[in-house]
Amino acid sequence: MSEQNSRGGDDAYEHHGGFPVYEPVKAGPNFGRFVDVFRRLQDLAVSTHAPDDVVDQAIAQAEALGDLLEPYKVGEGKSPAGFNVDIPGRGSLLLPPWTIEKFDADGVRERGHFRRYHLGGNGAVHGGTIPLLFDDLFGMVIHASGRPIARTGYLHVNYRKITPLWDELVVEGRVDSVDGRKAFCSAELRDLDGTVLADSEALMIELLPGQP
Ligand SMILES: CCCCC/C=C\C/C=C\C/C=C\C/C=C\CCCC(=O)SCCNC(=O)CCNC(=O)[C@H](O)C(C)(C)COP(=O)(O)OP(=O)(O)OC[C@H]1O[C@@H](n2cnc3c(N)ncnc32)[C@H](O)[C@@H]1OP(=O)(O)O
Fold first, then answer.
1. Which of 3, 59, 63, 165 gets the highest tally of CB atoms within 10 A of its CB?
2. Residue 14: its pLDDT value, please?
């Protein structure tokens, strides 16, 4: 069934701007573990200082792994990475390993942690990782609200406290108001005591037909 957009259109193509209509790519039973193994390697790649011969062995083994996987490369929208909401970070290594707790029209909440890979300085999460979390959340907020596909016009982040690695944290966002194609959104990142570590406001702009 097609849905109406803010201009009253009801065409499925219009709903997706210039995006292709993706079919869900279901992950196999071992894909979550596949992602976990690579997350461990990402952490180790940025937290080890191994002797040269060990680095040489790691290069050889990683190249062998690359050769194993290379024949299975697929285009955008054809890999389970990024499309499986039951896997932390939807199975995408770009995203931190957060899990969706709430996904409905009045907002989206996710719970998770940052890892060594996301280190900035002096034990804190890298300041560029937090906008990534918010930006992706706002994409899902738009999707959950039933609005047509949108891109981020602006994303403002206030860093209120140091965000720690490894601690369980919660992020929650919603659409606050809508003006034609423009959806004004907000979100907060909190620790489990409820302290706000960062908050964000974003303008999500509905794509016109054919816009990439
Ligand atoms: C991916 C699928 C995964 C599926 C998995 C399954 C479930 C998950 C569910 C959902 C998916 C979840 C996540 C998706 C992933 C990521 C989401 C993040 C989204 C992004 O990460 S996306 C990348 C960063 N994003 C860009 O790469 C945008 C580059 N940009 C443009 O592409 C154009 O900019 C465009 C097309 C946006 C607009 O262009 P345009 O020409 O159509 O429109 P125009 O400029 O006229 O603006 C219209 C009105 O917005 C006002 N306006 C514009 N910009 C403003 C600003 N900065 N400040 C204040 N107002 C602004 C104007 O003033 C006017 O306002 P008014 O109408 O009142 O005059």
1. 165
2. 52
For 201, list phi and psi in degrees, rounded to 5: -130, 140
| Closest by Cα among 90, 92, 101, 94 to 192 | 101
Q: What is the CATH number of domain 12-206?
A: 3.10.129.10
Structural domain boundaries of the chain? 12-206
Residues with CB under 6 A from ligand 1: 82-83, 85, 90, 135-136, 139-140, 143, 151-154, 180-182, 203, 205, 207-208, 211
Q: Calculate how far, in angstroms, residue 203's C-alpha sits from the geometric centre of ligand 1.
A: 7
Secondary structure (DSSP) of the chain? -----TTS---HHHHTTTS--PPP-PPPTTHHHHHHHHHHHHHHHTT----HHHHHHHHHHHHHHHHHHGGG---TTSSSTTT-TTSGGGG-TTS-SEEEEEEETTEEEEEE---GGGB-STTBBPTTHHHHHHHHHHHHHHHHHTPPPEEEEEEEEEE-SPPBSSS-EEEEEEEEEEETTEEEEEEEEEETT--EEEEEEEEEEEPPTT--
Question: Model-level pTM?
Answer: 0.92
Q: What is the pLDDT of residue 112?
A: 98
Q: Which parts of the chain sit beneath pLDDT 70?
A: 1-14
The predicted pLDDT at position 13 comes to 43
